[in-house]
Amino acid sequence: MHSKISTCRPHRAVTAVAALLAGALALSACSSGDDDKEGTGQKPGATTGSTVSLPKLDGAKLEVAAVWTGGEQANFKKVLAEFEKRTGASVTFVPAQDPIINFLGSKIAGGQPPDVALLPQPGAIKQAVQKGWAKPLGAEAVKELAKNYSQGWQDIGKVDGKQYGAYYKAANKSLIWYNTQVFENAGAKEPKTWQELLTASQAVYDSGVTPFSVAGADGWPLTDWFENIYLSQAGPQKYDQLAQHKIKWTDPSVKQALTTLAQLWGKKDYLAGGQKGALQTEFPQSVTQTFTGGDQPKSGMVYEGDFVQVNIGETKSKVGTDAKVFPFPAVGDSAPVVSGGDAAVILKDSKAAQALVTFLASPDAATIQARLGGYLSPNKNVPLSAYPNAVQQKIAKALIEAGDDFRFDMSDQAPQAFGGTPGKGEWKDLQDFLRNPGDVAGAQAKLERDAAAAYGNGG
Fold first, then answer.
1. Model-level pTM?
2. CA-atom Rg of the chain in angstroms
3. N or C: which end of the chain has fewer CB within 10 A?
4. Phi, psi of 177 (to 5 degrees)
5. If you ran DSSP here, which 8-state letter would residue 329 be given?
6. Alpha helices in 131-172 (DSSP H)
7. Are strands 165-172 and 301-303 parallel, antiparallel or unpaired?
8. Is the predicted pLDDT of residue 185 greater than 90, yes or no?
9. Residue 269, pLDDT above cutoff 90
10. Candidates 3.40.190.10, 3.90.550.60, 3.30.559.30, 3.40.50.1100; correct CATH number of 175-336+418-459?
11. By the 8 A CB rule, do 171 and 305 touch?
């Protein structure tokens, strides 16, 4: 499925969004960290007045599946508790494994599909529709989406013009987080270009700290690294063509991006544990080891989206003071803006399931989780004051003001077999590239072979 988000947009649109984000983050030098958010008088998780009408569902039972764990899962359960309170329904959270399509397939084969699933890829939504699993959203959910979401966020949840997904969660995946103490000790400055990032990395290294943690044990952060470089360097039109496999992974633009990526991944001393250590580092650890150990952590920086804050919260570091963030630097003409997200999809059509997705599409649900931190909503009617710190508020503001001028995560647009399966496709190929960053041609050949098989075309 190719949405309006995947249409060609000029460089200047992306540049404008990147400039907005850069300016927003520059204003976010500190955060209160208080329980009372921005003087709203409300504690995290407190609810606001109802803006969405929900039916009484006394006795109804629902299952909701998602791959979320830890704090993210706990916070979402508080949203589900509010739905239970308002409707009288009973909702059970079902922990799913990646890839969630495979997990759902086994559940459906066993005759026990969850009522609603949160799918992290547009490709997975399309697959669920093609298999006959997904049910179209009803009039109330569609009405709620139209009221609260930009056209682009609505379209990315459509298949063949019909609404199947409601994007409950978004991610800004064009951010690099850094240990403030490390940067201060190294005399490093927030970089705006790729060359400046390499300079800052060298300064951090010279100060005695390894520059980067890379979550190589998980394939998906590696795809995000590539996408930011590729979007900035090759531009939006090439990005869309590669996302749809209209050009091959053996294209010179891919060679250029991988060669650029190797400028960091190819330097053993720039990666915590070297390439071997990076391949054993899972995403949560890549974050926590950057913000523990005082001014001598295992790394000074870590790349990933706004959701990094959940993991920073597991350390004693405070976002906005101990942990700061800058936009992914411009590699080409403009800085990249890559987004991702999770959409609620109905698998068992019922009054209760439709009501739950309608609730998730409302500002009521998103506001609850926004207050708890580590979460970003594409819902434009969630008050910015709901986000728990200045950094998160500015990231949310930038996403909403971007409207449709962003690019959705490329691997999430791909067929699941290529862009969303651990140990296979792009995830595995980029892990192999991290292991041997000198073999650009070999990585391209593997990527093209796997993409051609998954897309069913030769590019």
1. 0.76
2. 21
3. C
4. -100, 145
5. P
6. 139-148, 151-155
7. unpaired
8. yes
9. yes
10. 3.40.190.10
11. yes
Over pLDDT 90: what percentage of the chain? 74
Q: Which residues pair with 64 in a beta bridge?
A: 93, 116
Of the candidate ranges 47-56, 154-163, 326-335, the one whose mean pLDDT is the lowest: 47-56
Most confident of 32-46, 177-191, 391-405: 177-191
d(CA 17, CA 407) in angstroms, rounded, equals 11
Residue holding tokens 């200045």? 390
Determine the residue type at 190: E
Q: Which two tokens stand for residue 168?
A: 């409950």
Here the tokens at position 315 are 């350390």
Query: Whose CA is closest to 164, among 113, 101, 117, 96?
Result: 117
> Under CATH, domain 61-172+338-408 is a member of which superfamily?
Periplasmic binding protein-like II (3.40.190.10)
Take residue 136 and report the two structure tokens written for it.
Answer: 């179209």
Query: In the prediction, which pLDDT does 405 show?
Result: 67
E runs forming strands in 100-204: 116-119, 158-159, 162-163, 165-172, 175-179
Cα–Cα dist 260/297, whole Å: 26
Q: Same fold for the domain at 61-172+338-408 and the one at 175-336+418-459?
A: yes
3-state secondary structure of 65: strand
Banded pLDDT at 334 (limits 50, 70, 90): confident
Q: Locate tokens 């009501």: which residue? A: 355
- Residue 16 pLDDT more than 70? no
What's at 291, amino acid-wise?
F
Q: Where are the domains of the chain?
A: 61-172+338-408, 175-336+418-459
How high is the pLDDT of residue 13?
A: 35
Measure the CA–CA gap between 52 and 361, rounded to whole angstroms. Answer: 9
Contact 37, 386 (CB under 8 A): yes
Nearest 10 degrees: CA dihedral of 177, 317, 171, 360? -170
Q: Strand pairing partners for 343? A: 119, 167
User: For a pLDDT cut of 70, what percent of the chain falls above it?
Assistant: 88
